Amino acid sequence: MTSKQCVRKWIALAAFVAVLGCISGFTQVPEIRWFKNLAEASAVAQKTNQPMMIDFWADWCAPCKIMDAEVYQAPELVAAFGNKMIGVRIHFDLQPEMVRKYNVPALPYLVFTDSLGTELMHHRGLIEKEDLTAVVKALPADLTEINRLDRILEEDKNHFASLQEMGQKLRAIGFFESSNGFYERALKQNEAKKDVGQREAVLYEMALNSLELQDGKTAAANLERCLKDNPTSARRPELLLNLGHAYALDEKKDQARKSLNSVIAEFPGSPAAAQARALLQSL
Fold it and tell me: SS3 of 122, please?
């Protein structure tokens, strides 16, 4: 083979490789970009105030392999992630400090956090691609205000106003369990201990969260405390109405009727009384 023929052969080979590269580029399937280090992921998330999803996994975890093959490859989930969510994968065996930090009980385990890594909600076990896609889409794309409050609480974990506001913001976006976590911390502060009005406001919001979570027992306990601490509260019609709802959820129908009838007797023309009458008919 002459030198000219060699040159032609190498040019043809280079052109073939280039074509393959172009084809590969056009047919490459999009995928979720995973960070393996939470600190690095958080640094990126904080620049744009994005939420993060932390996936705890391990090589020996059979359900984790199903998640890899059937969930994380789903085009609709990849599209939902897009530029909205930062993904983090934490190996259960190799990063035990992260396992302790998020109290991981079993695998697979997903934790959704703000940009600083503070938990907003979690999911244990397998989750279908449609359900995970729905969760990702429902999460706010911009956590600026939640991140702001989180930074204040990093400096002062007992800052009452920020704890209360964080509870309110998480409740507004549907993170009822996480919201109650911050409200519980707010209840332990002097502002709530010494001021019946502040305490009632926190307890009432906690009760509404519990009702959303279908936890009638916890909701009733908080509402009973509100009524005991402040029997003449301006919020009394709503307290009695929601207490009736809580008792109904807890299968205490006699107590539910008593509370709902109290609303009607004490505040006959109020919107709360109208709702109480409707609820009574369903008992």
Answer: strand
Pairing label, strands 34-35, 52-57: unpaired
Q: How many residues does the chain have?
A: 283
Inter-residue long-range contacts of 226-233, CB under 8 Å, 24+ positions, other chains counted: 226/200, 229/196, 229/199, 229/200, 230/196, 230/197, 230/200, 233/200
Give residue-wise pLDDT tens across range 131-150: 999 999 989 999 999 999 99
Give the count of alpha carbons within 13 A of 222, CB side only: 25
* Least confident span in 5-9, 63-67, 173-177: 5-9
> pTM (2 decimals)?
0.84
Q: Evaluate whether residue 145 is within a structural domain.
A: no
Beta strands in 134-281 (DSSP E): none
Do 100 and 172 lie in one domain? The reply is no
Residue 143 lies in a domain: no
Q: Report the CATH number that the domain containing residue 218 is assigned in CATH.
A: 1.25.40.10
| Domain match, 160 and 275 both | yes
Dihedral over Cα of 220, 226, 227, 232: its sign: negative
Question: Alpha-carbon distance 93 to 61, whole Å?
Answer: 11
Helix, strand, coil % (nearest 5) of the chain? 65, 10, 25
- The dihedral through the CA atoms of 114, 117, 118, 124 has a sign that is positive
Question: What does the alpha-carbon distance between residue 146 and residue 124 come to, in Å, rounded to a whole number?
Answer: 24
**Could you tell me which of 219, 144, 216, 237 has the C-alpha nearest to residue 183?**
219
User: Peptide bond before 140: cis, by omega within 30 degrees of 0?
Assistant: no
So what's the pLDDT on residue 33? 93
